[in-house]
C-alpha cells in the first residue's frame, strides 16, 4: 500500500526495499558529480546543523564520481566558515555512487536534475526517495509552513508527504558546480546551499 502512495504507477516489485533494519538510524545521501565540492559541503554542513547525538547518518557520493579525492579547498573553507570542524573537511575522501549504495538511504538528495536522472538510471526502484536539493527544499518549506509546532513524522511518512506536495525537479534550479572556479563562485554556491540545508535539518529533527 505504501508503494502505491509513493508512485501510482509502480508496483510493489518496482519499489526498492530498504536494506537496513528499520531499528537503525535514518540515512541521507547527497550526490553531485565528483563528490569533492557540493555534496561534501552539504553533508558536513548538515551534520553540523543536526549536531550530536542525532538519529541520522549523513553521507555523500558522486556520479560518475572520483576515487578518494580530497575536498575542494574553497568549499572546505566555506564549510568551516559555517562551523564545520576543519578535521571533518580534511577527512573527506570522494567516492562513486553504485547501485547497492542507493538501496541504503531513506533520502537521496542530488545537486542537479541530471544527477537525479543518473541515480534513477543506476537504480530505478529508488524513485520514491530521490529529490534534487532545490526540490526537497521547496517541498520541505511547504510542509513546515502548515505543520503543527509539535508535528513529527516517521521517515517513510516524511518521504511520502514530500512527494504529496507536488513539487517537481527543475533543471533551472540546479546548484552550479564551483570546482576550480574563482572564490566568489564558491561563496555564491555555498549561499545557494544554505537555505535548503536548514530546511532539511528542520525536517530531519522532526523524524522519529
Strand content: 5-15%
Assign an overall shape.
globular
Let me know the number of strands.
Answer: 4
Which strands sit side by side, in order, in the main sheet?
Answer: 2-1-3-4
Described by strand count, sense and barrel closure, the largest sheet is:
4 strands, parallel
Number of helices: 8
What is the radius of gyration? Answer: 16 Å
Mean pLDDT reading = 89
Uncertain runs with pLDDT below 50, 5 residues or more?
Answer: 1-13, 17-22
- What is the terminal separation in angstroms? 21 Å
Query: Fraction of residues in helices?
Result: 40-55%
Derived structural class: alpha/beta
Order of helical and strand elements: HEHEHHEHEHHH
Describe, in plain words, how this protein is organized in 3D:
This protein is an alpha/beta fold and 208 residues long. Helices cover 42% and strands 10% of the residues. The protein is globular and about 40 Å long. It starts with a helix and ends with a helix.
What's the gist of this structure?
The chain has helices at 2-6, 38-50, 73-81, 86-91, 113-122, 133-145, 155-164, 183-204; strands spanning 26-32, 56-62, 107-110, 130-132.
List the helices and strands and how they pair.
Elements: H1 2-6, E1 26-32, H2 38-50, E2 56-62, H3 73-81, H4 86-91, E3 107-110, H5 113-122, E4 130-132, H6 133-145, H7 155-164, H8 183-204
Parallel strand pairs: 1-2, 1-3, 3-4
Helix pairs in contact: 2-3, 2-8, 3-8, 6-8
Amino acid at each position: 500500500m505504501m508503494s502505491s502512495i509513493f508512485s501510482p504507477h509502480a508496483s510493489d516489485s518496482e519499489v526498492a526495499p530498504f536494506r537496513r533494519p528499520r531499528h537503525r538510524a535514518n540515512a541521507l545521501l547527497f550526490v553531485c558529480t565528483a563528490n569533492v565540492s557540493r555534496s561534501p559541503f552539504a553533508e558536513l554542513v548538515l551534520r553540523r546543523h543536526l549536531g550530536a547525538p542525532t538519529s541520522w547518518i549523513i553521507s555523500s557520493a558522486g556520479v560518475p564520481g572520483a576515487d578518494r579525492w580530497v575536498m575542494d579547498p574553497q568549499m572546505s573553507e566555506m564549510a568551516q566558515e559555517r562551523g564545520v570542524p576543519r578535521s571533518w573537511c580534511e577527512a573527506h575522501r570522494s567516492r562513486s555512487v553504485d547501485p547497492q549504495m542507493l538501496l541504503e538511504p531513506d533520502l537521496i538528495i542530488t545537486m542537479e536534475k541530471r544527477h537525479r536522472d543518473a541515480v534513477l538510471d543506476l537504480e530505478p526502484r529508488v524513485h520514491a526517495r530521490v529529490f534534487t536539493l532545490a526540490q526537497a527544499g521547496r517541498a520541505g518549506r511547504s510542509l513546515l509552513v502548515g505543520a503543527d509546532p509539535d508535528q513529527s513524522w516517521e521517515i517513510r511518512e516524511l518521504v511520502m508527504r514530500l512527494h504529496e506536495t507536488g513539487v517537481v525537479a527543475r533543471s533551472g534550479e540546479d546548484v552550479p558546480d564551483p570546482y576550480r572556479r574563482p572564490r566568489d563562485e564558491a561563496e555564491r554556491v555555498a549561499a545557494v546551499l544554505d537555505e535548503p540545508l536548514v530546511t532539511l535539518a528542520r525536517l530531519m529533527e522532526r523524524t522519529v
